[in-house]
Specification:
- By secondary structure, the protein is an alpha/beta fold.
- The protein folds into 2 domains: 165 residues, 3-Layer(aba) Sandwich (Rossmann fold), CATH 3.40.50.300; 70 residues, no CATH class.
- It contains 10 helices and 10 strands.
- The strands form 2 sheets. A 6-stranded mixed beta sheet has the order 6-7-8-3-9-10, sandwiched between helices. The protein has a 4-stranded antiparallel beta sheet with strand order 2-1-4-5, covered by helices on one side.
- Strand 1 and strand 2 form a beta hairpin.
- It starts with a strand and ends with a helix.
- Belongs to the ABC transporter superfamily.
């Protein structure tokens, strides 16, 4: 097992009067792709937002590369080469695809300063980003917007990529393209944490898995083992993979 790049220890999160996370323990191995699964309302998105400092943990510890990041704000966390793609994707609809990408390229003040070799690699992962480079992002389809959201997150090298439900609402062909892209990202050395509801997506990509229920991690282990254990799937998720 690889060393853990990201760990959560006993993390509690309150949103107003609501106690959402109830002592989350989670380990994300370096260089692997970890799936975070669970029923709707289990606390998956809250876990991601807590990691990113968008919501502050009220108790417990979040560590990245051995550093305590629990009390850092979101810009400080992003500067550690952690990228986050929310379920909403966060696309700037009135800007072009190029302008969306440039906003995320912190080392470039204009498009010509972006890393050409990296852009070429991103275009190979997501051809629609190149095809619609000068088009308003708001005119893209849902699948194309999701590709842009992930492309924007990796426009500069990232050590950890966190993505919330990348396959939601996408056509099967787009999902297959997304699976191929994440597989290539993992092969390039990026550590990835995905929240996902598409079980086939999870089964094909995941190295490790954590399953949440009622604000806690109730199972953690190998994705392959979960995929092969129908009784465990039924117990944890109420379905069979």
């Amino acid at each position: 097992m690889s060393a853990n790049l990201l760990t959560l220890e006993g993390v509690h999160t309150h949103i107003g009067a609501y106690h959402i996370l109830h002592g989350v323990d989670l380990a994300i191995p370096k260089g692997q792709l970890t799936m975070l699964l669970g029923r709707n309302g289990a606390g998956k998105t809250t876990t991601l937002r807590t990691i990113m400092g968008l919501w502050q943990a009220s108790q417990g510890k979040v560590s990245f590369a051995g550093r305590d990041i629990t009390r850092l704000n979101t810009p400080q966390i992003a500067e550690l080469n952690i990228a986050y793609v929310p379920e909403s994707m966060g696309i700037f609809s009135d800007l072009t695809v190029k302008e969306n990408m440039l906003l995320a390229a912190r080392s470039a003040s204009r498009a010509s300063q972006m890393d050409a070799a990296r852009l070429k690699w991103i275009f190979s992962l997501f051809p629609a980003v190149e095809k619609f480079w000068n088009h308003p992002a708001g005119k893209l389809s849902g699948g194309q917007k999701q590709m842009l959201a992930v492309a924007r997150a990796i426009v500069e090298p990232r050590e950890l990529l966190i993505v919330d439900e990348p396959s939601k609402g996408l056509a099967p062909a787009i999902i297959n393209n997304m699976i191929d892209a994440f597989a290539q990202l993992k092969a390039s050395g990026v550590t990835i944490l995905l929240v996902e509801q598409n079980i086939n997506f999870a089964k094909r990509l995941g190295d490790t898995v954590a399953v949440m229920d009622n604000g806690r991690v109730v199972h953690a282990g190998s994705m392959k083992e979960l995929a092969e254990d129908a009784a465990l799937q039924q117990s944890l998720l109420g379905l069979a993979l």
